[in-house]
Specification:
The complex is a heterodimer of chains A (about 300) and B (about 375). Chain A is mainly alpha-helical and about 300 residues long. Chain A has helices at about 1-35, 40-60, 70-95, 105-125, 155-175, 180-190, 190-195, 200-225, 235-250, 255-275, 280-295; strands at about 130, 140-145, 150-155, 230. In chain A, the strands form 2 sheets. A two-stranded antiparallel sheet of chain A has the order 1-4. The termini of chain A are far apart. In chain B, the strands form 3 sheets. In chain B, strands 7-6-8-9-10-13-14 form a 7-stranded mixed β-sheet, with helices on one face. A 5-stranded parallel β-sheet of chain B has the order 2-1-3-4-5, with helices on both faces. By secondary structure, chain B is of the alpha/beta class. The model of chain B is unreliable at about 15-25 (pLDDT under 50). Chain B starts with a helix and ends with a strand. Classes of the chains: A mainly alpha (about 300), B alpha/beta (about 375). The interface between A and B is large, with 43 and 37 residues.
Chain lengths: ~300, ~375
């Protein structure tokens, strides 16, 4: 009985972290799906989202605002605004001028952007770990057995619900709205979409903005869940989310969600049943295995040579 | 635009001229190498504050053999790669005495370079035994070893008669070293160790680890590493209602753990060097720090002060600024310092150094336990 509870507890832990990986992975996968480049600065956008949320929360607290929903909504809006304008600006400054050149050039530009943003936050906010206030505390306790109690915190529920809402809204947006349809068209054939009168530059910008906004949501959620932010934490989270995107099939939005969840659960099961030391080993071995045996990822479509 | 370039150029040339003038007036350069930035910069602050104060006071008392000490400061970010770069630039700058580095994993690679290039190094904070195990002539420290700190922590935990103990570390030289020392002590005392496991430094998600600790039903968790990770573990453990007592080495004992862990830091046990700032004979020095608006209570402030003072005393006793002769003088002499009477053994370790168990509070203060 205790073993079963332990398994479910680790599953909850894994799904929590996995759903935030999925939120970040969306940004990678959408950009890749549309212009075929890996936006390595995406992890930094996520980190900036977390910092903005923290600054907004601290600011509100200093004005004496104590009503939790208001704090959360304002922090979320601030983080999304700053991150999306950052995402937009990054595309404008670092990617658009080199679009259409050799594949390596935008990639290197992205890595440069990532280093720049990391160091910018380093200078602006200092390099120390800054504590994130615990705004949502407490949770449910159930299924106690031999001293082991399963728990599901309100914070974890918030993460599931927010991720679910974001994903649903995004899916509806992509499948139903006019811009969404244009996104799909651009991802199928950029040149043709352009000929048919779609403003492809605008669509590409929109992709960056949407990805960055979702990363900001993940930044706020994870900041509150873990409890601290530092300028380097976007890098490893970005790497994990990228892994999740490739795992699920880069370019596919449901793939990013699935990849994120699988990666999160794999990590928590590894540290739960093997040892925390092997967590990253397992997640990156998973990436290599997928690349060897199913290079398009779990839900990716094989790329058809465009003539 | 043009004028500002001119201004810059003139400022640069003036500072070059000043630097040249400085070297002409026969000064003794003391390198201070430690983290000014990065996740453990707060320890660097302690180191720099202590060393600067010592240099200031020695100069106010007429310097060393009539020459002034000059601080040259380097930032190693507590990163082994950066530490090597710093060590090389120290060599280039002609510095022959170093107070540093702070993190054991930085001190070790840097000390290879210092030993080869004939630079005397005194680390005020690195506790890894390996640093002085290699028979180097020019390596000293003003702090104890993990092999002393581990048994203090292990014996304390054993004295509380726990049923089961978990030991977690961050896989780095310092953290794993000290965790191993604690494990060995506990084993000798016959305490059951339910878990001995590493985490990744810089990680943020410890929910799986906390769940595992909960299932293992441990009374004590010893963590070998630094505060950013332990702060998060404490906080996530509290959220998951893990009921265990946590203990860590001096690497977790600073006020930043309170901003990360908040209330969850209450009751954390930490082994630290004794509070040198509470000793009666140091009160004048403590006041000097307070007058400058600095806090002398950090674990590495007075050890860094002592490191500078030892270099100065060594030079005076050797009547030479040759690092090898100074090292000889340090090994043979006995020195009165703010951390007590200092005598070195052949390896460059202090002959005696004491660690004390403190209980940490959520407001950042601490009280001695035993």
């Amino acid at each position: 009985m205790q073993d079963l509870l332990y398994f479910f507890q680790q599953l909850i832990n894994g799904l929590t972290i996995g759903s935030t990986y999925a939120l970040i992975a969306i940004g990678y996968t959408m950009v890749y799906g549309i212009i075929g480049m890996i936006n390595f600065a995406h992890g930094e956008i996520y980190m900036i989202g977390a910092y903005t949320a923290l600054i907004a929360i601290t600011g509100l607290a200093s004005f004496g605002v104590a009503w939790l929903p208001l704090i959360l909504i304002v922090a979320l809006i601030c983080a999304m605004l700053v991150s999306s304008s950052m995402g937009w600006a990054v595309e404008r400054v670092a990617y658009r001028p080199v679009r259409g050149r050799h594949r390596l050039i935008p990639l290197i530009s992205a890595i440069g952007m990532s280093i720049f943003l990391q160091n910018y936050v380093h200078l602006a906010q200092g390099s120390r770990n800054i504590g994130f206030p615990a705004l949502i505390e407490g949770g449910f306790q159930f299924g106690s057995s031999e001293g082991f109690q399963m728990s599901l915190s309100y914070m974890q529920i918030t993460i599931f619900v927010t991720t679910l809402v974001c994903m649903t809204v995004l899916s509806l947006f992509i499948s139903r709205s006019r811009t969404g349809r244009a996104c799909r068209a651009v991802s199928q054939d950029l040149g043709m979409a352009n000929l048919l009168g779609i403003d492809t530059n605008r669509i590409i910008s929109a992709t960056f903005v949407i990805g960055a906004a979702l990363a900001a949501v993940a930044g706020l959620l994870l900041g509150m869940y873990y409890g601290s932010v530092d300028p380097l934490f976007g890098f490893i989270a970005g790497l994990k989310a990228f892994t999740a995107a490739v795992l699920g099939g880069i370019g596919s939005i449901p793939g990013a969600m699935l990849g994120g969840l699988i990666l999160g659960v794999a990590e928590s099961m590894t540290s739960g049943y093997l040892s925390g030391e092997y967590k990253d080993v397992i997640s990156f071995s998973l990436l290599i295995l997928i690349l060897l045996f199913k290079p398009t990822g779990l839900l990716g479509k094989p790329e058809v040579e465009k003539i | 635009m043009r004028t500002s370039v001119k201004k810059l150029a003139s400022a640069v040339s003036t500072s070059i001229a000043l630097m040249a003038a400085g070297q002409a007036a026969a000064e003794i350069q003391i390198g201070i190498a430690g983290p000014m930035t990065g996740p453990v910069a707060q320890y660097g602050d302690m180191q720099f504050a202590g060393a600067r104060m010592a240099i200031e006071q020695i100069n106010a008392n007429g310097g060393v053999m009539g020459e002034e000490l000059v601080a040259v400061e380097y930032d190693d970010v507590c990163d082994p790669k950066q530490a090597v770069t710093v060590a090389n630039s120290l060599v280039n700058d002609g510095v022959r005495f170093v107070v540093g580095h702070l993190c054991s994993s930085s001190t070790q690679p840097a000390s290879d370079i210092y030993e080869d290039e004939g630079i005397l190094m005194v680390t005020p904070a690195s506790t890894s035994p390996e640093i002085t195990e290699r028979g180097y002539e020019l390596v000293f420290r003003t702090i104890g070893l993990d092999s002393m700190q581990g048994p203090v922590a292990g014996n304390y935990i054993a004295s509380q008669n726990p049923e089961r103990v978990a030991i977690v570390h961050d896989k780095q030289q310092y953290g794993e070293g000290i965790a191993t020392a604690v494990r060995d002590t506990l084993k000798d005392q016959g305490v059951e160790i339910a878990m001995f496991e590493g985490i990744t430094a810089g990680d943020k998600d410890f929910s799986s680890l906390v769940t595992k600790l909960k299932q293992a039903d441990v009374d004590y968790v010893y963590y070998g590493g630094y505060h950013p990770e332990l702060g998060l573990i404490l906080r996530q453990a509290r959220q998951a209602d893990l009921d265990a007592k946590f203990m860590g080495p001096e690497g977790v004992g600073n006020k930043d753990i309170n901003t990360i862990a908040g209330e969850a830091a209450e009751g954390l046990l930490v082994t630290l060097p004794p509070s040198f700032d509470k000793k009666a004979e140091n009160q004048e020095l403590v006041k000097a720090f307070q007058d400058k608006g600095e806090d002398p209570s950090g674990p590495f402030v007075l050890t860094s002060y002592t490191a500078v003072q030892l270099i100065a005393d060594g030079i005076e006793q050797a009547e030479s600024t040759d690092p090898f002769e100074v090292a000889e003088a340090l090994r043979s002499g006995s020195f009165q310092t703010p951390i007590g009477a200092v005598q070195y053994d052949q390896a460059g370790d202090l002959k005696s150094f004491e660690f004390v168990v403190y209980e940490w509070h959520s407001d950042g203060s601490k009280t001695p336990v035993n």
